[in-house]
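Supplementary notes for students who missed Thursday's class. We covered one full example, reproduced here. Read the sequence, then the structure, then the short commentary at the end.
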Amino acid sequence: MPGRAQVAEPFVESGPPILRLRGVSVRRSGRTILGPIDWTLAPGERWVVIGPNGSGKTTLAQVASTYLWPTAGAVEVLGETIGRVDARELRRRIGYAGAGLETEFDPGLSALDVVVTARHAALGPWWHTFTAADRGRAQALLGEIGAGELADRPFGLLSTGERRRVQIARALMPDPELLIFDEPGSSLDIGARETLVRDLAGLAARPKPTAIILVTHHLEEIPGGFDRALVLGSGRAIGAGPIRKTLTGPILSAAFGLPIEVRVDRGRFSARLSTQ
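Structure (token representation):
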């Protein structure tokens, strides 16, 4: 039987919160799919959000990125309260990338155009004006993650791993204060996954973005430098706090409903069914 989850000890915030959720719930068709949940991100923190399919991870990412308003509760992002601010303007300070976003882009757009659209938090380049400086920044960001040669290629013809790297560049385009990745490792082969983990570890080591959220359901995809974890189960927080105190067998067993062992080898996490 899974052990009883214990929420990790609270930590001391290092400044005004980047994100604060208070009593947040999201309901669909009469069913609560997230919450109620309280969660705070302080400057400098790198959070992993983990849990089984259907636990509310993507919903949480959408709320944090201002693309989804909660049914109940208050959401504060970068010092602004959702509902009292133009969310379109706020999104220019947030970088967002995820497997689900890829289908929103015209597959005929070049990789460079996909990146540059984030300058105005848009999904296409047709309604905004982009400067030479904007395009230069987009090209430089592609180069930083080793994807500079993809700039002129149609987005729809890129491999899954290449599209994820382009999305990282796009998420960085607005020089965000908050960076959110929603299951970026989905459908990647081992080589592409390890390249992604390496790139995300590099981002985690930078002073900006001020805070990063990585949503995943695989412990093996957690890069070095991520120091906090939130574990969800059935839309509720099962554990939250310092990563090594939160990603434990008892907490994950409670979230997934199975006896799970957690191992850490040279800073990388892995999980398996318990043989005990």
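Commentary. Confidence is low (pLDDT under 50) at residues 1-13. The radius of gyration is 18 Å. If anything here is unclear, bring it to office hours.
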